[in-house]
Amino acid sequence: MIGMSSLGMLVALAGPAFAEVTLRLSIWDANQKPALDQITARFSEENPDIKVSIEVVPRSDYVTKLETSIVGRNAPDVFWNALPDRFLELARSGLIENLDERIKADGVDLSPIAPALLEAFTYEGSLYAIPKDFDTVGLWYNKALFDAAGVAYPDDSWTWETLRENAKKLTNPSKGVYGFVVNAGTRAGYYNFIAQNAGDVLTDDLKSGFDQPETAAAVQFMADLILVDKVSPTVQQTEEVNAQTRFKTGQAAMILDGSWRAREFADDPYTLENANIAVLPQGTVRASSSGTLGYSIYSGSEHKEEAWDLLKFLASPEAAQIQASAGAVIPSHMDQAQIWVDAIPQFNLQAFLDMVDYAEVVAHSFNTPGWSSIMNQELKKALAGDVSVDEATSLVATKMNEVLASEGK
Predict the structure, then answer these.
(1) Dihedral of CA 291/295/299/301: which sign?
(2) Which of 106, 155, 195, 375 could form a disulfide with 287 if both were Cys (CB 3.0 to 4.6 A apart)?
(3) Looking at 37-100, which runs of residues are DSSP E strands?
(4) Cβ pair 277, 153 in contact under 8 A
């Protein structure tokens, strides 16, 4: 029989047990959580002492909640970082980890990731986030409504005028059907039309582009679709029932939306049967807005080493393949893009990849939310017909330049 003193000696010789660490990972898209659950489960299989708790925060609250948690020193260990938010400011302020030394020390191979995506998350020559995906915007259309109206499906010959004329044919007030829904927002709205008219939201020298006639004309085209052609619900009506809901219930024949919407529409029986995608109609040029997401480590994390282990796995081909197979978003690993296209064969997801050559990275600066909120607020008034487009864009240019001028202070 082993005495208590001998048992205590054996326990002491065995040394301390591994302490389990739970990392907090913050995201905003619930459509991507199932794939991330698979990815983090695989990570924990290889790292049994590290668990991952995924926190889904609504997109509209994400930036505010993240900033609040950083101020309170209770931010997630790892979180999604996006260019339209405060990536540059977080990097400049040292609130996210510089990853260069860790990448070099561990020999992490980032070559499968598109160079443009790595450049997007580089600040003063150093990488501060591992790119996870990118996106473009396409023209989603309802095949059943097109068939009922006798209108041919969209293709790459479409222009703004084609969009306008066919939207008129597809609009059926008696049935509550609109030919198109104008999105009074950035990614699925202004940014695409402005780029297609060779205008700028933000110039290369970090000035507002809303004093450019090309930019104002793009906003005018959007306003005319609502106020003159009446092929789109009003701004107020779209706030009550958004574009995605109208599209999923057969009330909208066409909407602009991103590659990130594919999984949501595939999970809906109506859109899975009736929806498809074409490249965006061309203005004076062909263009799509494009964004990218990356994973960053909070510099105040108490578990930086474990967080880095997670980031390495998230950057791996295995993680990219799981994400691509789920059909949620286009992976940053370009050699996995076809897996994403094939994940939902009912949709022409290739259209989103066809827009890559015409993609323009979304406008961003150190304080993007500071001026984008002004932009959205004032342009919405123009789309509602409360002020003229010229009045709105002039005011946006003035206020936006004030915010931009204060960014370096």
Answers:
(1) positive
(2) 195
(3) 50-56, 78-82
(4) no
Tokens of 298: 């909070």
Return the domain boundaries, the chain.
19-135+291-343, 137-290+365-406
Asked if 404 and 231 touch (Cβ cutoff 8 Å), the reply is no
pLDDT-derived band at 18, boundaries 50, 70, 90:
low
- Summarised one tens digit per residue, pLDDT across range 288-327 is 999 999 999 999 999 999 999 999 999 999 999 999 999 9
User: Do 19-135+291-343 and 137-290+365-406 come out as alike in CATH topology?
Assistant: yes
DSSP element (H, E) containing 7:
helix 4-14
Per the CB < 8 A criterion, the answer to whether 335 and 133 are in contact is no
Q: Averaged over 364-377, what is the pLDDT?
A: 94
Q: Judge contact between 154 and 240, C-beta under 8 A.
A: no
Of 231, 265, 107, 250, nearest to 161 by C-alpha is 231
Tell me the pLDDT band of 2, cut-offs 50, 70 and 90.
very low
The torsion angles phi and psi of 267, rounded to 5 degrees, stand at -80, -10
Are 354 and 375 a contacting pair, CB within 8 Å? no
- Residue among 258, 237, 261 at smallest CA distance from 181: 237
| DSSP-based three-state secondary structure for 258 | strand
Q: How far apart (Å, rounded) are the C-alpha atoms in residues 347 and 193?
A: 24
Tokens 């008219």 label which residue? 197
User: pLDDT tens digits, residue range 148-183?
Assistant: 999 999 999 999 999 999 999 999 999 999 999 999
Taking only the tens place, the pLDDT of each residue in 245-277 is 999 999 999 999 999 999 999 999 999 999 999
Distance, CA of 303 to CA of 409 (rounded, Å): 32
For domain 19-135+291-343, the CATH class is alpha beta
DSSP code for 176 = T
* Type of residue numbered 163: L
Whether the Cβ atoms of residue 221 and residue 194 lie closer than 8 Å to each other? no
Q: Which residue has the tokens 């995201």?
A: 27
Q: For the residues 211-223, what does the mean pLDDT come to?
A: 99
Q: Are strands 359-361 and 254-258 parallel, antiparallel or unpaired?
A: unpaired
The architecture that CATH gives domain 137-290+365-406 is 3-Layer(aba) Sandwich (3.40)
Closest to 297 in 3D by CA, of 99, 134, 119, 103: 99
